[in-house]
Amino acid sequence: MRALQLNLGRLLILANSALFALLVACGGGGYGGGGGGGGMLCGGVYTACPPPTVSITAPAANAAVKGTVALTATATASAQFNLTITSVEFLVDGTMVGTATTSPYTVNWDSTKVANGDHTITAKATDSANDSATSAGVVVMVGNAGVMAAAMESKQIFPNPRSKASGTARVNLQDGGALSGSVTLTGMSARTVTLNMGFAGSNGEAVLALAPHAGSSAQWDVPEGTRLTTEQAAALMQGRLYMLATSSANPEGELRGQLAPESVHVVFSPLSASPEAAARGASTAVGLAATTIDTGAHTLSVHVNSSGLEAATTAVLSSGGARLAELTRDRIDPGHFSTELAPISEADVQSFNAGRLSVSVASAAAPAGAIGAEIRPGND
């Protein structure tokens, strides 16, 4: 009899233990949480909480973005179990860039902190049961025009100083016109390095003098605290600012680097004698056409410099053999023709991409064109 009582006691203890464990697992019996208001409970061994759901709503997939970008997501937790969203983290290429705790879940991301190109945005939502879920990735294309690099070359100067030196100019334009950057030179001892205003092929006044980098004869820096004016910042975005390095041998400029954002293409095309001029004998005329085309704003700027051409009359820009624009002759320099920020169509942009643009300079002796060149994107 006593043995039977002991066995019954053990069974009661085991039953109570199992009931206690079940109550705790289900959140009931006053021992567990998971919400109130009459909703169902979860979080134990037998009733796992459903994870939250989250998706990116902005920016759209494959969007082109720049500057400060608003990242937005929608996130929901299980209403069946009275769960709530506690936070949404936003990640760019796996690195967290901000957290939002209230709906609408939005953070502002400074896209200038990453390189131009494709980047993947995801959002990670966490609920009140400490469960989390990560959204599908959204790929966007970052194109911050304020971050630019340009080769420093003698071929960008006319007449060409034929220097064997080289270099690179790098600048970063931030909000409010703040400018930072440097120029690195190889093969020359620079007297000055300046930032000048002017489209490729034209000469402009210096707007900023760079300072030699301490301990280095090859590097020149944009002075700390430099801010461009509104006009200068706009010019930079149009491809209308350039770096110029001078030397004792070439005080007017030995190397030049035209700065331009990704949407602006700068092409330098040496001019050579046309078939008509060649048929009349060897031509001593030389020239350089500098073309700046903005595929975003749909504008075109061309500067043509020539020398050795007697009685130059006109300069014409053509697209696929059809006249696109006549350039204006300079009042002081008879060998210089230009047009700036001329509106062009999308078809003209496609002609440029296909290498169908050309320029020619006519003279009294060669009215159909004395010297000319094809304007090909590969020359930029």
SSE layout and pairing:
Layout: H1 2-26, E1 53-58, E2 64-65, E3 68-76, E4 85-92, E5 95-100, E6 105-110, E7 117-127, E8 132-134, E9 138-142, E10 147-152, E11 166-173, E12 179-186, E13 192-197, E14 206-209, E15 211-212, E16 219-221, H2 230-238, E17 241-246, E18 255-259, E19 264-273, H3 275-279, E20 286-294, E21 299-307, E22 312-319, E23 322-326, E24 328-329, E25 336-343, H4 346-353, E26 357-363, E27 371-375
Parallel strand pairs: 2-9
Antiparallel strand pairs: 1-3, 3-6, 4-5, 4-7, 7-8, 7-9, 10-11, 11-12, 12-16, 13-14, 13-17, 15-16, 17-18, 19-20, 19-27, 20-21, 21-25, 22-23, 22-26, 24-25, 26-27
Short key terms for the protein model shown above:
4 helices, Immunoglobulin-like, mainly beta, 27 strands, 3 domains, 380 residues, six-stranded mixed sheet, disordered N terminus, 44% strand
